[in-house]
Specification:
This protein has about 140 residues and is an all-alpha fold. It has seven helices and two strands; from the N terminus they run H-H-E-E-H-H-H-H-H. The longest helix is centred in the last third of the chain and has 34 residues.
Length: about 140
Amino acid sequence: MNIGEASARTGVSAKMIRYYESIGLIAPASRTAAQYRVYAEDDIHTLRFIRRARDLGFSLEETRALLALWRDRSRASADVKTLAMAHIRDLEAKAAELQAMADTLRHLAAHCHGDHRPDCPILSDFAAQPLLAEKA
């Protein structure tokens, strides 16, 4: 199948398929005499694997590691679990950071009158806070 069909079957855009090939995440596709890329069922399966990993927030390098583990039939499932658990910790840390940001903004918004007056505690807070680099 051509790249358009592979894209439609995997949900991975043609541009990303070419990119994954260029960085070695997937093997170069075989080519027709006219140099069009041709994909087989194994390629589709690999692209779906990559799509699922990326949808779950794994980085390209983490996805590369997962692919290597997936292809290695002698792998230990503990290695896969270790990678997944590290990613869970990263996701939870990011979620906590996002929640803290939302809580801060919610607090500031609650103290803003939201009327015609120019006084705004949200902007005042932004203006008063030194950058993290300035604190160091």
